[in-house]
């Protein structure tokens, strides 16, 4: 493969499509100021032998999640965005309880609550996924832990996920009395194609290096289309980084290859002394943008960054300013979301990008049939072509940081390897009006083989390309 600053020459050979792995065990780090966890793509086997069905699943899941992230509402229950199909995400293993019980969780920077399938009576409907027997989903058993406690209604931590006003969440309780025995209300997490319901617990979160007592975690007893728990890494008070007081966290996302191997990469939690302004070597940084002060508090959980330019080949794509920068109402702008697979762009942004790819690849025929089957576009028919010059794709952020994507992070060879599709999705809304929520959601597919750092202490987002093993 040869490349220039504006194009990439792809030699068409035996590319495999993209795969998902499952399960990992915690491994200690020699540095006591850090905690290191294995991070793996979900599922160890190809969820579909039909590449069209797989791409259609990933496209649909990305669009469903984008719709949810953009349209979350404030309710008295938890309304957390979760990945709809359980394809395309990444998992970590966490241990809770005394003695500890270890479970696998989807790592999600777009939500905050940490929850697990709970009790021997846990039920998950419509959970017949590859390698998943709904009747044998691993669950946390509270009665086997001496440290498990139900969160009380008057406990301030109940307000992490419920209404912060005691009178609202605890009707009939005297907030000045310690005698109220009511439990924190049941949470109901809603997401694109499913739900989960349960009670909040205070439990010990156990690592080899340290234990976090009285960690707020959801004990879900009923779910739909969600066979695994969620580890929320968002900005809300119930998230793992907030409860642990992390200075920063980082991860490197393995490629979504279908290779059936139990490979994993590292996720590191930084719990040590203040790092002040120390930067990690080789990283490009852009500051996190201050979350919008919106009537929708859900937007306060996201990691906003300022995307200045989208560059296709040697052409800077013209995108209206209102889509690139979040307004005070939370509409517009860019967020980083590990739970989304394909990057989402609002229709006017996507059309500008797709049109530029189409213009620079005008020598290749559009594969309209594949676009209809996969839900992706533009797709190009490369039958009989020995090599093809692909325009490069670069995201340039505030401060000058450039994310130069490898071709496998934004184009996918599908079917018999004669068709190439852009792996960015958009809604089908007509017109150029700015809809609610972020305009651009950077998904994990575009972050494959990037080391990514969320520096919470210094409010900045860092990244560099590297092989993630």
Automatic annotation (TrEMBL):
Keywords: Aspartyl protease, Glycoprotein, Hydrolase, Protease, Signal. It holds the Pfam family TAXi_C. One of its GO terms (molecular function) is aspartic-type endopeptidase activity. InterPro entries: Aspartic_peptidase_A1, Pepsin-like_plant, PEPTIDASE_A1, Peptidase_aspartic_dom_sf, Plant_Aspart_Prot_A1, TAXi_C, TAXi_N. Residues 1-26 form the signal peptide. GO terms for biological process: proteolysis. The active site is at 108, 337. Residues 90-464 form the Peptidase A1 domain. Belongs to the peptidase A1 family. PANTHER family: OS07G0603500 PROTEIN-RELATED, PEPTIDASE A1 DOMAIN-CONTAINING PROTEIN. This is Aspartic proteinase nepenthesin-2. The lineage of its organism: Eukaryota, Viridiplantae, Streptophyta, Embryophyta, Tracheophyta.
């Amino acid at each position: 493969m040869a490349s220039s600053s504006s194009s990439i020459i792809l030699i068409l050979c035996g590319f495999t499509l993209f795969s998902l792995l499952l399960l990992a065990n915690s491994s200690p780090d020699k540095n006591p100021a850090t905690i290191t966890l294995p991070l793996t793509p979900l599922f160890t086997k190809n969820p579909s032998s039909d590449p069209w069905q797989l791409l259609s699943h990933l496209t649909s899941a990305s669009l469903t999640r984008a719709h949810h992230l953009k349209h979350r509402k404030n309710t008295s229950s938890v309304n957390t965005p979760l990945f709809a199909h359980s394809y395309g995400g990444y998992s970590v293993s966490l241990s809770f309880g005394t003695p500890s019980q270890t479970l696998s969780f989807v790592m999600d920077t777009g939500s905050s609550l940490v929850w697990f399938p709970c009790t021997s009576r846990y039920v998950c409907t419509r959970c017949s996924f590859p390698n998943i027997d709904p009747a044998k989903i691993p669950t946390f058993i509270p009665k086997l832990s001496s440290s498990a406690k139900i969160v009380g209604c008057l406990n301030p931590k109940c307000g992490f996920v419920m209404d912060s006003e005691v009178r609202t969440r605890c009707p009939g309780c005297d907030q000045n009395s310690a005698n109220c025995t009511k439990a924190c209300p049941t949470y109901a997490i809603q997401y694109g194609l499913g739900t989960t319901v349960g009670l909040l617990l205070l439990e010990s979160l156990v690592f080899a290096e340290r234990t976090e007592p009285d960690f707020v975690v959801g004990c879900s007893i009923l779910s739909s289309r969600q066979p695994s728990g969620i580890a929320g890494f968002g900005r809300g008070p119930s998230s793992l980084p907030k409860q642990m007081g992390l200075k920063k966290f980082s991860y490197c996302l393995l490629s979504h290859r279908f290779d059936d191997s139990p490979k994993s990469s590292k996720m590191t939690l930084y719990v040590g002394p203040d790092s002040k302004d120390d930067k990690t070597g080789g990283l490009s940084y852009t500051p996190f943008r201050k979350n919008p002060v919106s009537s929708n508090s859900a937007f306060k959980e996201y990691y906003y960054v300022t995307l200045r330019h989208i560059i296709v080949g040697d052409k800077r794509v013209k995108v209206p300013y209102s889509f690139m920068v979040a307004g005070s109402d939370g509409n517009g702008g860019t967020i980083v979301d590990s739970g989304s697979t394909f990057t989402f762009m609002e229709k006017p942004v996507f059309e500008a990008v797709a049109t530029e790819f189409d213009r620079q690849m005008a020598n290749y025929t559009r594969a309209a049939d594949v676009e209809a089957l996969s839900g992706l576009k533009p797709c190009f028919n490369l039958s009989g072509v020995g090599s093809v010059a692909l325009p490069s794709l670069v995201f340039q952020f505030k401060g000058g940081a450039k994310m130069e994507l490898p071709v496998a992070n934004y184009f996918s060879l599908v079917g018999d390897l004669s068709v190439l599709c852009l792996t960015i999705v958009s809604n089908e809304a007509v017109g150029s009006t700015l809809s609610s929520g972020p305009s651009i959601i950077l998904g994990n597919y575009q972050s494959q083989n990037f080391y990514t750092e969320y520096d919470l202490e210094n409010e900045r987002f860092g990244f560099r390309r590297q092989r993630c093993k």
